[in-house]
Amino acid sequence: MGENPAKSHYAQLNQGEENEMEIFGYKTQGCRKALCIAGYILSCGALLLLFYWKPEWDVWANCIPCSLEEADIVLLRTTDEFQIYSRKSVTWISVSAVIKSKLDYPGIAEEDSIFNEALMKPSLQVKSIQVQKIRYVWNIYAKQFQKVGALEDHHTCSAIHAKFGSGLTCNEQNIRRAICGPNSIDVPVIPIWKLLIKEVLNPFYVFQLFSVCLWFAEDYMEYATAIIIMSLLSISLTVYELRQQSVKLHRLVESHNNIMVTVCRNKEGFQELESHHLVPGDLLVLKEGKALLPCDAILISGQCIVNESMLTGESIPVTKTRLPQADNLKPWRMHCAEDYKKHVLFCGTEVIQTKGDDRGVAKAVVLRTGFNTAKGDLVRSILYPKPMNFKLYRDALRFLMCLIAFAAIGMIYTVCVFALNGEEAGEVVKKALDVITIAVPPALPAALTTGIIYTQRRLKKKGIFCISPQRINMCGQLNLICFDKTGTLTEDGLDLWGLLPSERNCFQDFHSFPADHSLPWGPLFRAMVVCHSLIVWEGKIQGDPLDVKMFEATNWVIDDSSRHHIEGQGSTHATVVRPGPKASSASVEGVIILHQFPFSSALQRMSVIAQEIGGEKQVFTKGAPEMVATLCRAETVPSNFESKLLFYTAQGFRVIGLACKSLQTGRQSTDLTREEVESDLTFLGLLIMENRLKKATKPVLEELSAAHIRSVMVTGDNIQTAVTVAKNAGMISPTNRVILVEANKIPGSFLASVTWKPLEENKTEEYGSLVSVKQHVSLQGRFGQYHFAMSGKSYQIIAQHFSHLLPKLLLNGTVFARMSPGQKSSLVEEFQKLDYFVGMCGDGANDCGALKVAHAGISLSEQEASVASPFTSQTPSIACVPELIREGRAALVTSFCMFKYMALYSTIQYLGVLLLYWQLNTFGNYQFLFQDLAITTVIGVTMSFTEAYPKLVPYRPPSQLISPPLLLSVVLNILFSLSMQIFGFLMVQKQPWYSRTDIHSACLSVDSHMENSSSVSSLGLHGMGDGAPNEADDGYKSYENTTVWLLSTINCLIVALVFSKGRPFRKPIYTNYVFILVLMGQLGVCLFLVFADIDDLYSKMDLVCTPTSWRISMVIMLAVTLAVSFLVEEGVIENRALWLLLKKTFRYHSKSHYKRLQRVLEQDSSWPPLNETFFSDSVAISVDENMGGHSNPTFDSNEDTL
């Protein structure tokens, strides 16, 4: 039954967000419920179990559809490709205890508030549901469920100051608390019994339980017991791990739930209370000293320095400034655009330092509470990971379905054979069900996960931590890696290389560092001294590495301890910088930093307002030179600014522009807006930093290139610097051309233009600078001969106005510069749309979004496991990338090997049993036990030990089970096994010593004849001969049984050896010593069983004695099967050249979007266009400001299964 989305019955929850869901309303119906209860009883709980697995069936059976307004049960369905259903009950929250009289109504909240719109009058109740720890209440007017626990987004900056600037009243706070719930990220430790029940009710274990019950019914005690012990061990380990995770998560969040905080109450002054009483809209007072933040809050006065390493993995202190009091009608977040995070203090981060301003102490309005906060969001992403969609897992399910279909055929055959021979109905049912447990191996899921567990351990030894093991297989498919530049490809710390001062619109003499003579005191030196966001923390100067290097070069020191009297502001806590002991003589005692506008990736600059002790106030700005130059008065910018900038960036230097201006006295520095401060500046010069490549960068990029894995640079730095670094690192080879793609909006219209300019290194030009080449360069339209480079601004305009060009540009785009965090995430998603498997390697902070969106995000962080990405490398070098790809490829191949082996083992056993069923015989219990336990279980555990091959080959392993080589391999090996077993089965009957009635006819020993008897089996041997003398004593024994069992057992070993792939993705199989020893040991035991003639052993194993000549014949059959199987696997299945030839012959082309596009562009002589400008002829597609669809409160990212 599907869903009929009638408007009032259906709605969307969290529309446009990452956790978007569809919601359907249902009402419980008494008679339906009674029928279901009867069904539970009659089915002995099977129906209840089915409803537990399929909650939607439960709702459809028990309830009738109704409008969401009347619903007492809601059914939720995720909107992704998995369409997972969940069932929730609607609850009522009563607020009558809080609202004593009608006089309290006005105090509830403003008219447009959700708290007002959700309250049903006169009952004073609120209808709510809780989904993934978030509470939603029914909005009576909007007729929809809305999230509570966060301040509404529609507030403007001035409204936040006006409405919440003096705090909430006690009554308002109580109502909000009743509706929003407590401000706590409560992760209770799950009781062991709950975890146990949840694990046991897994369909896989239910199937095992069914198998075990059947085996007990057939007296197959030993293997049933072994499976019970293994399952209990597996369940215990899983429950133990889940419990440990639960305890760990509980401890991680427990600390923040009970913090004492001070809030400001409207008309009642300050009040101290426990943090779990906080509600959105409360006014929080931030005291001096260290403190953990118990919620997300917007700073509305003062300034804070926080350590956000818990969220980003970077321990650089971050400066937060107060929300401006802008009087426009834009919602506060839109007004602040990407910089809204500069005013938000995130839950779980640590406040290191607070500074008051002219409004008094630092205060913040509570923005989000509980699981709505940044930390809550991270905890939820751990509790409810996003399901992984990988072809391997889907194919595995399809394969299981095929095995079940295969088993169904066997069941029909079994019923026919046994029923026609007049067997009892009970026996027929048992034998038929037995076929399922043979054809579908119960150990399959466990065998598939062993490879991933071993890989995870190997990665851990190499310093790579993984918090999402199912992504390891995905790493084997990566074919494009995006790298951040600074701190990833290049060294984290920059060295100050030189300074190019500018005076009266001319550049002065270049000043190099370290220099013999110190820099003279002047505006440029002053800018270096104050234009930063450094702090003294734990006795060390901390902050951005660039700021640290710049400040250290001045030999000044930060005096962060004293209070300073500032004219018009009284005494305030401000940062003061003073000349250090080694500093050159300066005419001032020190400089006070009054106010900061922190660095913003979107604005590409930072500014400070500073004042010399006893001097005037000045503004200093530093940032991207192009950006700083646009803020300066044109007459102060040197005429050769662009050529000088090009000269340094082309050599790979990081260039920073500096500017300043004087402020008129009279106005408070805190009243000035950023726009007022950062205008009409005087250009001071360029700061040139050297950013060296890390040692590992070039060899790693060469290795990836040799393996045909694309490398792309995504950076916030200047485009010329990025291109030069890409060339130096080998990302762009010297023979390849770089084409600069520039897109601009046409002023005064909705149109835009895009221009292609080739960047050519002109050797005759002085300094080898990059210049635009005007003549048309002939570029063959072949992949790899040219590279596109573009800025974040151009990328955004192309995405909006030229969306049809974007895929073409991405196909050869190698350098993306000046990219904001949101644009980085968007770029990764666009690459994924082209069917690339994308890896992202960055340093955590501004790459968080992209790290989560990518198929494999690798964070270079010192912390053991960064919540920012699925993989974390403790070694801050990109050498972890090829390592991860190698291990991913090995894990993927191991999964395929295990799958093929498990499928073949069950098929071999299944074929053997069906052959023997023809004679109403089957394998004995110890024969099954030997195959299941001694052979398959041991192989399953040791086959995955093979390590990854050290060299990356220029192609990837197949990504799906249902690929022609894999299917052919399985089908051919099944045919070989079938042929051998049928041949053995028929040939043994043609031997001169063969007898169906006398199983001792082959061996003439009388002693053997007397002793070789066994107990009566439940399986009678009707039809095996007329009145045979030993019929009752022989159990499962027969020449066919002995022949088929010995052949099938050793066949399992042959298959294990043939399927154990070595090169090119794993080390040769002989390096897996444990596996080889196990195989040799098992083969030794099997050959011993073939040739030994120990009566007791044969009796126990239900084997019979055969002549030596027949035993040798069996070994020859096995040797032939091994030879044929090995030759076919190596000569056909693993013959890459043959498959490529077949592809060429049948004109098979890859269906990947990027491959198709590549083929189209190869035929297009007009691509790439050079020295041409295109204009958009249609209205722009509306693209979100941050280019990232959903905006996670912390990262602007899509949370991708932690």
TrEMBL record:
It comes from Aythya fuligula. InterPro entries: ATPase_P-typ_cation-transptr_N, ATPase_P-typ_cyto_dom_N, ATPase_P-typ_P_site, ATPase_P-typ_TM_dom_sf, ATPase_P-typ_transduc_dom_A_sf, ATPase_P-type_domA, HAD-like_sf, HAD_sf. It is an enzyme of class 7 (translocase). Belongs to the cation transport ATPase (P-type) (TC 3.A.3) family. Type V subfamily. The keyword Magnesium applies. It catalyses: ATP + H2O = ADP + phosphate + H(+). This is Cation-transporting ATPase. GO terms for cellular component: endoplasmic reticulum membrane; late endosome membrane.
